[in-house]
TrEMBL record:
GO molecular function, one term: polyamine oxidase activity
InterPro entries: Amino_oxidase, FAD/NAD-bd_sf, Flavin_amine_oxidase, Flavin_monoamine_oxidase
Protein name: Amine oxidase domain-containing protein
Binding site for substrate: 352
Pathway listed: Amine and polyamine degradation; spermine degradation
Membrane-crossing segments per the record: none
Domain Amine oxidase stretches: 37-457
Source species taxonomy: Eukaryota, Viridiplantae, Streptophyta, Embryophyta, Tracheophyta
Source taxon at top rank: Eukaryota
Similarity annotation: Belongs to the flavin monoamine oxidase family.
Pfam families: Amino_oxidase
Residues noted as binding FAD in the record, renumbered to the chain: 246
Cellular component terms (Gene Ontology): peroxisome
Length: 490
């Protein structure tokens, strides 16, 4: 009986070590690379789980592709600016609601233009004549019909192709869907808006996978005061090292060693890599040993697109009271669209938003030339337009910290590449919009993957040290939640 009591006592008191020594109490540690939405979400979750967290950020600011600028005297987002899915199903909605941040809803559900309802546009031709709304609506119906026909093409072909190739097949089969004159130009504008959603051209977007991402209910809402308050709230109390560009990650069973540009090293039990896909593609971070081939393939094969913003601040409003101004043209490349922030925020600001090849071409210009280009597009539809008094220009494609705006499904590539990019490699975990199979290219997708990476990391680190308490709710889990048994087959 005595030996049994001693054994129970040892179990209650913890593991005994030789010479009566106890293992020293330790705090599990994690390094998070990247202070964008995914990295900050991961760091917040682990910080609240009592981990020692260090965030290494290459920029001199936090936020990553969330960049709210205040130089005009009011907030303007150069990066992410919409909440896609204004509903309780959106994981960011509770935080945005708690902070009292207003949203300006720009569309309901199932809008053919994704983030805006058709009625909120004013389209013009190159001569400044407004396109009749009835024609815009009619062409929109034709565009929806074309998309339905492309689905039939997808079902009939085992090999993938681009969206533009599928459109060509549709036009051959259904010549009545081929439009001419002004109607053709309006159709090209619809294609232009589709390309803006994916930040890539129609001849690079996968027919097989273009619509595989999930759209949350509630339509889309513009963050009136910008996204930075959300980032700042999540970042409170976390150890964030700015201007720390990571160049090397060494993984061992005992932990990881991370080296930054000036040679400084950091050690921890695990690391969460939450840098943009473009940075991974450029191999700016060296992994030792190399990542497995399947992981490198996922990085190489996922598409990364570009959408930029040229933000024009005027001393007065001289444009129609609509959410978007559009310029129709013979090709989607020559079409344009301007977001009217005055309708949402009350500030006299228009945002020109080029995507795909057009965005790449504009990035080759100086800021002044890019602004002049955008302003000339505006002058085509509003000849009386006055010059802007201030401007901002984003360059997500050439910014060494991003090298692209967000991910998309490239032709010939599987949609499950997002999941492959997310899967951990030993004690290296991955987060970011490009690791979200359900919500790629979105801010809530980035947020969710940050939380997932944090939970996967927490489980692995605590299991390794035998300290995992599976009965204790963590990461915001609610006690009493009914959870199904985890049953699988060998």
């Amino acid at each position: 009986m005595e030996s049994s009591d001693k054994s129970n006592h040892q179990l209650r008191g913890g593991i005994c070590y030789p010479n009566g020594a106890r293992r020293p109490v330790r705090t599990p540690s994690v390094i998070v690379i990247g202070a964008g939405m995914a990295g900050i979400a991961a760091a917040r979750a682990l910080h609240e789980a009592s981990f020692q967290v260090t965030v290494l950020e290459s920029r001199d600011r936090i936020g990553g592709r969330v960049h709210t600028d205040y130089s005009f005297g009011f907030p303007v987002d150069l990066g992410a600016s919409w909440l896609h899915g204004v509903s309780k199903e959106n994981p960011l909605a509770p935080l945005i609601s708690r902070l009292g941040l207003p949203l300006y809803r720009t569309s309901g559900d199932n809008s053919v233009l994704y983030d805006h309802d058709l009625e909120s546009y004013a389209l013009f031709d190159m001569d400044g004549h407004q396109v009749p709304q009835e024609l815009v609506t009619k062409v929109g119906e034709t565009f929806e019909c074309i998309l339905e026909e492309t689905n039939k093409v997808r079902q009939e072909h085992s090999e993938d192709m681009s969206i533009s190739s599928a459109f060509s097949i549709v036009f051959e089969r259904r010549p009545e869907l081929r439009l001419e004159g002004l109607a053709h130009k309006v159709l090209q504008w619809y294609v232009c808006r589709m390309e803006g959603w994916f930040a890539s051209d129609a001849d690079t977007i996968s027919l097989k996978s273009w619509d595989q991402a999930e759209l949350l209910p509630g339509g889309h809402g513009l963050m009136v005061r910008g996204y930075l308050p959300v980032i700042n709230t999540l970042a409170k109390g976390i150890d964030i090292r700015l201007s720390h560009r990571v160049t090397n990650i060494v993984r061992r069973y005992t932990g990881v060693k991370v080296t930054v540009e000036d040679g400084t090293t950091f050690a921890a039990d695990a690391v969460i890599v939450a840098v943009p896909l473009g940075v991974l593609k450029a191999k700016n971070i060296k992994f030792e040993p190399r990542l497995p081939e399947w992981k490198e393939a996922a990085i190489d094969e996922l598409g990364v697109g570009i959408e930029n913003k040229i933000i024009l601040h005027f001393d007065k409003v001289f444009w129609p009271n609509v959410e978007f101004l559009g310029v129709v043209a013979d090709t989607s490349y020559h079409c344009s669209y301007f977001l009217n922030l005055h309708k949402a925020t009350g500030h006299s600001v228009l945002v020109y938003m080029p995507a795909g090849q057009l965005a790449r071409d504009i990035e080759k210009m100086s800021d002044e030339a890019a602004v002049e280009f955008a302003f000339m597009q505006l002058k085509k539809i509003l000849p009386e337009a006055c010059a802007p008094i201030q401007y901002l220009v984003s360059r997500w494609g050439t910014d060494v910290n991003t090298l692209g705006s967000y991910s998309y499904d490239a032709v010939g590539m599987s949609h499950d590449l997002y999941e492959r990019l997310r899967v951990p490699v030993d004690n290296i975990f991955f987060a970011g919009e490009a690791t979200s199979m359900s919500y790629p290219g979105s801010i809530h997708g980035a947020f969710s993957t940050g939380q997932m990476a944090a939970e996967d990391c927490r489980m692995r680190v605590l299991e390794r040290y035998g300290e995992l308490n599976l009965l204790q709710p963590v990461m915001g889990e609610e006690a009493g939640l009914c959870v199904p048994l985890l049953i699988t087959r060998l």
